Amino acid sequence: MAGKKRRKLKLLAETETDGTKMVAEGKGERLELHDWSELPAELLELIMCHLTLEDNVRASVVCKKWHAPAISVRVVNQSPWLMYFPKFGNLYEFYDPAQRKTYSLELPELYGSRVCYTKDSWLLLYRPRTHRVFFFNPFTRDMIKLPRFELTYQIVAFSCAPTSSSCVVFTVKHISPTVVAISTCHPGATEWVTDNYQNRLPFVSSIWNKLVFCNGIFYCLSLTGWLGVFDPVKRDWGVLVVPPPKCPENFFAKNWWKGKFMVEHKGDILVIYTCCSENPIIFKLDQSKMAWEEMKTLDGLTLFASFLSSQSRADLPGIMRNSVYFSKVRFFGKRCISYSLNDSRYYPRKQCYDWGEQDPFENIWIEPPEDISAFI
Question: For the chain, which has fewer Cβ within 10 Å, the N-terminal or C-terminal residue?
Answer without folding.
Answer: N
